[in-house]
Amino acid sequence: MKSVVKIEKGLEGVYFTESKICKVDGTLGRLCYRGYSIEDLAENSTFEEVSYPLLFGVLPKKGELNTFKKDLSDKRALPKEIIKIIEESVNKCDTMHILRTAVSALPLYDKNLDSKTSDKLQDSINLISKVASITATIGRYLYGKKYVAPNKNLGHAENFLYMLNGVLPSKKDSRILDKMMILHAEHSSNASTFSALVTASTLSDIYSAFTSAIGTLKGPLHGEADENALRMMYAIKDANNTENYINNALNKKERIMGFGHRIYKTYDPRARIIRSLLTEMQKSNNTEIKNITEIALAAEKMMIEKLGKSHGIWPNVDFFAGPVYRYINIPIDIFTPLFATGRSPGWCAHIIEYLENNRLIRPLELYEGKTNLHYKKISSR
Prior knowledge:
Number of domains: 2
CATH architecture of the largest domain: Orthogonal Bundle
CATH superfamily of the largest domain: Citrate Synthase, domain 1
Number of strands: 3
Shape: globular
CATH class of the largest domain: Mainly Alpha
Strand content: under 5%
Structural class: mainly alpha
Low-confidence stretches: none
C-alpha cells in the first residue's frame, strides 16, 4: 500500500527551527523583537539600538551602544571599486541587481573572511553599514550625482539621507526613516531570511548568505510590494477614482498590492504605525504627496470594507510605505534596496543564531515521474 505524503506547498505552516529573535502573532496582529513590542521600539528607540539586541540578544547599555554606533560609522565608506560597480550599472538594470552585485563583491575587501579569526558579528556590522551606503549611493547615481562620502558624526538613518541627497537632512526626515528602518529590521522566517539560512546552513560565508537573501527579496511577491503599491496609487491618479480602479482590478481578479499577508490575518501592526504618519502628510503643500496620501487612505477604507473582516485581507507594512518614502524624497527605484537596508540586522541575526546549532537544510520532494525506462541510443530514438 502506497504511503500518503502530505505536501505543504510553499512550506506553509511548517516549522524548521527554533528562534529567540522575533515573535509574529498573525492572529492578534502583534510583533516583537527579542520580547519588545514593535510599537514600543518604534516610538522610543533608534535603528542602531534595535539592531544591537537583534545581533547580541539584549538591549545595550550606553557604553555598548556608543561602541556599536562607532563600529557602524567606521565601516560606512565604500571601496572605490564598489562605487565604480554602482556608477557603471545604474540605469542599465534593476537596482536590486546592482545591490546584489555590489554586496557579493564586498568579500574581496574582507581580509579575514576565510580565516579562523573571521568574526560573524563584525562581518554583520560591516554588512549593515555598507549595505546602507551602497543603497544610498545607488539612489545618488540615479539622480545623476556623484558619490558622497559618509559622515561619521551622523546616525545611521541620518547618514543615509545625507549620502543620498548630499545635504544634511532635517531631524524630522531622519526620524521618519529611522522609524521605517526599525519596522523593517526583522520579521521571523520570511522568504529572504529562509533563503539566507539555506545558504548559511551549508557553512558558506555570511556574505554569500546575505546575497541569497537579496536575490530572494527582489521577487515581486516579497520585496517589491511597496513599490508596486505606490505605482498603483500613481495609476489611480485621483482619490475620487479609487473606487472604480479597485473594483475593476478585483473584478479581473488582480492582486491589490499592499494588502493581505501570509501570516497576519488582521491589521499588520507595522502598517498601523506607518499610517499614523499620514495625518501630517495630508497637510503637505506638495501636490504629489497630498494626492497619493488621499488615495492611500481611500483605498484602505474601501479594501477594509470589502475584504477586511470578511476575508482577512488587511493593509500590510508595504501599503503605506511608498507614500512615506516619497514624503522624505526617496526615489521609488530604491524602495526595495532600502527594504534590504532595514532588514540587514534581522538577516544577520538569524544567520548567527542558526549556525549555533547548524543543520544542513535539505527538504524532501515527492517524486511522481516515470521509472524503469530503458535508455535508447540517439540513432534509435
